[in-house]
Input
Amino acid sequence: MPDRFDLPAGFRWGVATAAYQIEGAVAEDGRGPSVWDTFVARPGAVRDGHTGAVACDHYHRYPEDIALMKGLGLDGYRFSISWPRVLPTGAGAVNPAGLAFYDRLVDALLDAGITPLPTLFHWDLPQALEDRGGWLDRDTAYRFADYTAVVADRLGDRVPAWITLNEPFVHTVFGYALGTHAPGRALMFEALPAAHHQLLAHGLAAAVLHERGLDVMLSNNLTPVEPATPAPADLAAAAAYDALHNRLFTDPVLLGRYPDLSALGVPDDIYGAVRPGDLDLVHTPGLDGLGVNFYNPTRIAAPTDPGLLPFDLVDIPDVPHTAFGWPVVPDALRQLLVHLHELYGKSLPPLTITENGCSVEESTDPDHPRIDYLSAHLDALARAAAEGVDIRGYYTWSLLDNFEWAEGYHQRFGLVHVDFDTQRRTPRASYAWYRDLITAYRGRNER
Ligand code: FCB
Output
């Protein structure tokens, strides 16, 4: 059986983070407020009232964090650029100090031999744009393309590949359908215009990046969907959920069309959001790579109350669960990748795992659940590669413990422990394990 040491030659090793989760410095050097700054101030929105105001203080401590990455021997670092740090009101005037921060970060990464892989949008929309409708407003897509041009013009000479959006599925569903993430809107299926406008933003930004000779990727949270039983009602519910979670985002980008959303009761034009020509804008620029964020598979049953939703999410018993309560099923990653390969065929660009990892209780020392999780998922990745899937790299989530959205600082995903009172960083056992894995992989593959 192939294992992680058999991953293809030239495979790229990395870690991933996101701006609001690590930077802090939310009111420094001219940064404007984002929807997350607003959301965390809402009573009850985030566990224990935690906020990202300081987070890992990475804005000031990035040299120390890059030294930690260098110690791992990474090829690449996936981080996100805070739109409101660069354009405090989302559009118009550029904040030179904000751009200068990312300029320093990129140079420091390159000095450490690490290729920067920026994400342009990881959920921290400028509040000024939210005040005009946020992703429910089509204009936000055009503002995103303008912002992309500003950043690409500054960093494109040193940054070869870019990720436009992070997880439009999670942002749409948690942020706009359920309201458990910023901006906290609970529109149920009427949230889906926010998905269309993010896809439009992706397409417009992809064209901007390609015009500058830069590579484009899109990262979504993807999950293999399994019916609870082979009964037709469970199969239909699973197909409806798959359309919403996975295909709503990959079909337009890779195939230029939306999947059938009728089982969700969503009109073909997504409540009037889809205009003639939009799908060409989304699809035609093409993708140089698809970013796959994978945490767990999803089991779906027919709804107990069909008036509410056309599916029920059910737990997967008899498997380990992470501290977050997510089921651990490593082979589901292989299944997902092989399924993508079969479903999209030649339309599927090379894949990169842009997030994968698990939260572990702070008291777990050494952090064996994390090492077990990562090694089993990398083995599953190697099996998918052996089955013919083109996989180019793996960015584990995350370098540091950080602000885990509505969970605040309660979920710890880091290879490096962070003491949020002192900002002291302490590499965990999984840090040494990942470093040794990268070294051993290179020893076997790059002789
Ligand atoms: C993903 C997010 C990332 C992080 C991990 C645990 O959905 O993209 O920011 O929160 O989950």
Q: What stands out?
A: The pocket of beta-D-fucopyranose is lined by residues 18, 21, 166-167, 170, 221, 293, 355, 397, 404-405, 413 (CB under 6 Å). The two ends are 22 Å apart (CA to CA). The chain has one domain: 4-445. The longest strand covers residues 115-121.
